[in-house]
Amino acid sequence: MTAILAIDQGTSGTKAIVVDPEEGTVAIAEETIRPTYLPGGGVEQNPYELLDSVLNAGRRAVSAADRPIAAVALANQGETVLAWDPATGTPLTQAIVWQDRRAESVCTELTEHAQSIAQRTGLVLDPYFSAPKMAWLRRNLTRDGVVTTTDTWLVHHLTGEFVTDASTASRSLLLDLDTAAWDPQLLDLFGLGTERLPRIAACDEIVGTTRAFGQEMPVAGLIVDQQAALVAEGCLEPGTAKCTYGTGAFLLANTGLNPVRSSAGLTTSVAWQAAGQTPYCVDGQVYTVASAVRWLQDLGLIQAATDMDALVPADAEGVLCVPAFAGLAAPWWAPEATASFTGMTLATRREHLVLAVLQGIAAQVAELGALVAHDLGRPLTRLRADGGLTNSAALMQAQADIAQIPVDIYPYAHATPLGAAALARCALDPALSLKEAVGDWQPTTVYEPRWSADRAEEFRTTWAQAAKACAAKGDHS
Ligand SMILES: O=P(O)(O)OC[C@H](O)CO
């Protein structure tokens, strides 16, 4: 009886699957989440929309699977925070989403500490991470209740416990990366010294039990969504890397038990904590990927994401896009950067703009791949890819062309919940290794580079100049 209900609570939706070790994924249920985009860089979600989506998707998946469930696993967005009343579980604010840029002022105030913060946490002082958002929320919204990432709130609703996991905590700027414990000095620095913080659990730990999905089941396998995908794609050895193409694109590479501090402007986090070990990963982000595609859709340039492949021409005819629709992350760290299109003429058509967006995403991921290689001290030889936009052959081919490495497409649409489910299985059976719980997989498609190395290099150089210009415009320091 080891079927697992695994829930991926993400930015644009919640997906629940029931995965059976023999039969694979036997049920899937999805619920859409609609974040609100506010002027000034605010991005919010209604906490009840998150909770209801978890409960509804979970219940629908359990009902469709029609079998005993051994545990529920939960992957979360990582850096999205809210304030809530620990006595009642009532939210006191909206959820402030990881894409929200409003905490930039908090980071600016702490600029002189940026280096020591980076050394302690492995992260860059940027509003992307949880602590600046928590501080901003405390100053601007409420001083009541507790302020935590969304996983803690959701798990509290499920189990009554007050807990997060080591990978999520490592996305906060409040965790000492070497000891994987809250760092009181960092808490003071962000003005959060008096906050009640959740206990940090391992990812393969049973943290409580819930009846929220009908049957009583243990809750185990808490992890950040990106790290969960890293697990599912079998990136268990140092040097292996994956990129998830979701709301944003997130490139993560396993660095083993060494919490290597990036010298290339990337960030380092806990990959997972399991079997008493804490492997780490370096990561880089493209903040807007499906969000950029949705923008194309909102503008009427495409009807749906599935239109893109038929529409795009072989060449963007010199149109170049830096898809910095919500600022630029690693290695530029320019939260106020905005997207750019250059190289347009009167002959430019919508299909050139669409291809330029796809190539811009691929170029940014390729840039991150080069930086990961720098930190690892060896080139990436392949990239494992998952997420909804791996369905776009145009995007994946652009990725192989521009990065000049083969791209292996993960065969399942649910890497994130599958990774969380593997950790939950380890929690139920400590004799099971993570490698055994994950199992093997073969790519459905392998995209080989078709561009020459010279063409790719020329494109990357031109694109990098455009990105630098965007970052410079966004740098108001
Ligand atoms: O919700 P997703 O799948 O776009 O992922 C969110 C990221 O983990 C944010 O860091």
Detail the topology: elements first, then pairings.
Blueprint: E1 4-9, E2 13-20, E3 24-32, E4 36-38, E5 42-45, H1 47-65, E6 71-76, E7 81-84, E8 95-96, H2 104-109, H3 114-121, H4 130-140, E9 146-149, H5 150-159, E10 163-165, H6 166-169, E11 175-176, E12 181-182, H7 184-189, E13 199-201, E14 206-210, E15 217-224, H8 225-232, E16 241-245, E17 249-256, E18 267-270, E19 280-286, H9 290-298, H10 308-311, E20 320-322, E21 340-342, H11 350-376, E22 383-386, H12 393-403, E23 407-409, H13 415-428, H14 434-438, E24 446-447, H15 453-474
Parallel strand pairs: 1-6, 6-15, 10-13, 16-22, 22-23
Antiparallel strand pairs: 1-2, 2-3, 4-5, 5-8, 7-9, 11-12, 14-15, 16-17, 17-19, 18-19, 20-21, 23-24
Bound molecules: SN-glycerol-3-phosphate.
Protein name: ATP:glycerol 3-phosphotransferase
Pfam families: FGGY_C, FGGY_N
Organism: Streptomyces yanii
In short:
With 477 residues, the chain is α+β, with helices and mostly antiparallel strands. The protein has 15 helices and 24 strands. SN-glycerol-3-phosphate (G3P) is lined by residues 10-11, 77-79, 98, 224-226, 246-248, 250.
